[in-house]
UniProtKB/TrEMBL annotation:
Residues 119-255 form the UspA domain. Residues 1-17 have a biased composition (Low complexity). PANTHER family: UNIVERSAL STRESS PROTEIN A FAMILY PROTEIN C25B2.10. It comes from the Eukaryota. Residues 30-48 have a biased composition (Polar residues). This is UspA domain-containing protein. Residues 1-49 are annotated as: Disordered. It comes from Sphaerobolus stellatus (strain SS14). It holds the Pfam family Usp.
Length: 255
């Protein structure tokens, strides 16, 4: 691991703890109490078939009834199973509703009492990769759920729909490979969300949809954090951090 990736993370929360917690025990013994008005998690219905099927969706991410063949697209080992997936890249006329979702879970995966859900802002730059690496190496544990988000400009979609799908599949493959490399046999659930439109709005919607325990972002990201801060007319990491503390309904981990 590089010197950058070994840098300790910063924890941003609305009420700072009395003492600095040890990383994993602290993350495993508390759950945010902030109420949500969002929707519940995706259904746990399994599909052993490699076909990704759509469902009704939510007010935040409407899903159109289509089917997308997922046979062999992710290219992961057989100990992972596909679950429900969504594809609105071809059916939506509103660029802000373009989305492509892949969902995989380890063979025999079960939710545990200690299960935690992490939303990771995995932008395509170095900081997004750093955040994802840190989660897989230092945070994820048996039974956890990872929501890996990458945003893109829906107005620039054009004829690049298949490229976006392939990028999502490559990202899923990368996450599962990192899981096998860091802790072989660790059973996790992974959802990759590619969403078009404003990055900050997409993050807010995903928080309402999945109700994660933590939001994980990279300190050097320009495609996510800078836009987040610019939305408030406050450039710079300090301003972004203050925004996270004051506005995020879930604890934020900055790595």
């Amino acid at each position: 691991m590089s010197s950058q990736s070994s840098r300790p993370p910063s924890f941003l929360s609305q009420s700072p703890p009395a003492a600095t917690p040890i990383l994993k025990p602290a993350l495993k013994t508390s759950r945010p109490s902030t109420p949500f008005n969002g929707t519940s998690n995706l259904p746990e219905t399994e599909s052993i078939s490699p076909i990704f099927e759509t469902t009704g969706g939510t007010d935040y991410f409407p899903r159109i009834s289509t089917q997308t063949s997922g046979s062999g697209t992710v290219g992961v080992k057989t100990r992972y199973k596909s679950k429900v997936g969504f594809d609105t890249l071809q059916t939506q006329t509103d660029a802000t509703l373009f989305s492509f979702t892949l969902q995989m879970k380890s063979e025999g995966y079960k939710r545990l009492r200690s299960t935690r859900c992490y939303l990771v802002a995995a932008s395509a730059d170095e900081s997004g990769s750093h955040a994802l690496d840190w989660v897989m190496e230092s945070l994820a544990q048996e039974g956890d759920e990872l929501i890996v988000f990458r945003g893109f400009d829906g107005d620039d979609m054009g004829d690049n729909q298949e490229d976006k799908k392939q990028e999502a599949q490559d990202l899923m493959h990368s996450v599962l490979e990192k899981n096998d490399e860091n802790e072989p046999g660790r059973k996790i659930s992974v959802i990759v969300e590619f969403v078009g439109g404003k990055i900050t709005s997409s993050i807010e919607r995903l928080i309402a949809l999945y109700r994660p325990d933590f939001l994980v972002v990279g300190t050097r990201t320009r495609s996510v954090l800078q836009q987040w801060g610019a939305a408030l007319g406050a450039p710079g990491m300090g301003s972004v951090s203050r925004y996270c503390v004051s506005r995020s309904p879930v604890p934020v981990i900055v790595v």
